[in-house]
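thread from #wetlab-drylab

HS: before we spend reagent money on co-crystallization trials with magnesium ion, can we at least see a predicted complex? here's what I'd submit
DV: go for it
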Amino acid sequence: MPVPGNLIGKLNLKMPMEIKAENKSGNMRRVGFLILAGLVFAAVAWFWFKGQTVPIQKRTRFLMDTVCTIYIPGPKTVLPVIDKALDRAEEIDKKFNCLNPDSPIYAFNHNNKPIRDPEIVEVAQKALAVARQSDGALDITVYPLVRLWGFFGKQGPRLPSEREIKECLKHVGYKYVAVQNGEVRKLRPDIQIDLGAVAKGYAVDEAAKILKQAKIRSALVDFGGDIYAIGEIRNRPWTVGIRNPRGEGEVGGFEISDLSTATSGDYERFFEKDGVRYHHILDPKTGYPSRGLISATVISADATLADAWSTATFVLGKEKSLALAEKTEGLQGVVLITPDGKISSSSQLARNFEKNSKGK
Ligand code: ADP
Ligand code: MG
């Protein structure tokens, strides 16, 4: 999960030029003095302005099973806007939660009711497009598998038997869901969906939209590592760090402005059995947690797509994800970490991504 680093930007002050007023006639000296005084005043004003620490307002709520924070540099008067954006995220959390009996997704899964809610239809459509582009690495029909592994439920996670997984896989396949006439429809009655891999990104997009409508020019929306950066902070893009998946701190970071980033990692939700780590991102082809990467970060202009692609690239692994990042619209860069701790980035990010010397 990326963590916002350097929230107030790096100061890059240059010393003012040295001014020499020697060997001048009286008038020239006076003019020289005035120029000097003017320059000193300008420099002091400039330093004062640059040296101001912009207060950063923030609010946090626990939504979508994660910590959601919005940061805005500015006075306290921006707080009601943050609250409004978080209210919207809360509304999305409820609507997209497949455990909520009032959710259209619940009615779809348990009563075969087509989904007409326009925003769920829109998000499902985006997720199905990424499912096709990633050859099913992202698959919204993994819900029966997610339930079998028990990552979200009162009983807690467990290692299912091979037979159970094989049986479950019979009910998984994004091709058995379609958006037709503005509705999400099942093409087979046993199919159930889970938009958990994309809903958080959608909430980020919607929160950012509310901030922009309120004319906020600089802000960071961070919902559990799904991030949208609006504008700049103290005339620099926002810096985002990528969390070290196996230790403290960050392995590196990059700068973004008016862009989104999301990370999927095997360290978010997992259990260990007989020394093996089992985590919550499942490979829809095998039914087991995907193994090729331990962290996948992506960049996109659209936070819903960033969320979808972070899950898809995590499952696809290094080679396929690097290749897709070079040619896929909506996937503007990736930083991937393999189990040996090696970090690879696509060409778009190679220029921007800076490894932390203290990281791995
Ligand atoms: P996080 O929620 O930790 O940021 P992701 O965005 O990668 O992680 O979403 C993971 C969630 O999506 C899982 O908790 C599960 O509900 C669901 N999921 C797991 N594997 C897949 C997959 N291959 N395709 C689509 N959804 C998945
Ligand atoms: Mg995701």
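DV: The chain has ten helices and 16 strands.
HS: ok that's useful, forwarding to the group
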